[in-house]
Amino acid sequence: MEKTWNNKAWFMVLPVLVLVAFSAVIPLMTVVNYSVQDTFGNNEFFWAGTDWFVETLESARFWDALIRNLIFSAIILTIQIPLGIVIALNMPKKGIGVPICLVLMALPLLIPWNVVGTIWQVFGRVDIGLLGRTLASLGINYNYVQNPLDAWITLIVMDVWHWTSLVVLLCYAGLVSIPDAYYQAAKIDGASRWSVFRYIQLPKMKRVLLIAFLLRFMDSFMIYTEPFVVTGGGPGNSTTFLSIDLVKMAIGQFDLGPAAALSIIYFLIILLLSWIFYTVMTTSDAQG
Question: Global pTM?
């Protein structure tokens, strides 16, 4: 029997395609246009070719910011993924404690990014902040404005507080989807808690962990609002990530060509690393 194709569904997708074109494709093409040209104002452009890309890749400023981004993302993933798994494993699966825990876990995710930065900016101040004054009273010399290590610790703790809940909720969703038959069989076999986690829970959470890993990597690698509000990229350039450097270049210095080239390189790095992570994790999942 010959199949009949119905193309009317494309009319339902058309509004989405138009929206994506205006919100993503057109701005992207504008950035590409700026990246290969130079301007001195008055809407006059001069062809620059790949000069801005070469200049960016040869800049120590770019590589320093990239290294900071990679270190920050590595620390965030190292802390949040295991911590999220541990919290999800210890959350109740039945009873009134379930909605209470879920609401408490979701609360940090409801706070806007700029508000999170403002909260921790005030929270860490030595003069009026609860954290800063407490540490000062204990004799700990803590000042995220002047000490680069304190600034990094503050940003890491802030991000862990804000986003670990996402990992917890994803892991919890994976755990509650495991049928009770698996646990009953493990109990009959006398499996230990570690064996249950290693051979039942962890394999069943692989897909949600992949989603959590990719989401947290992309978000931590593109982080901007929180460190900008808390430290402004300082002290010095110790917390100046690529996103902050990009905004300074585009808005502060108004170097549209170099900023456009940097944004495209930034986008390609995120795309490449996400693809590598996804390929590696899906390949290992298929082999397992």
Answer: 0.86
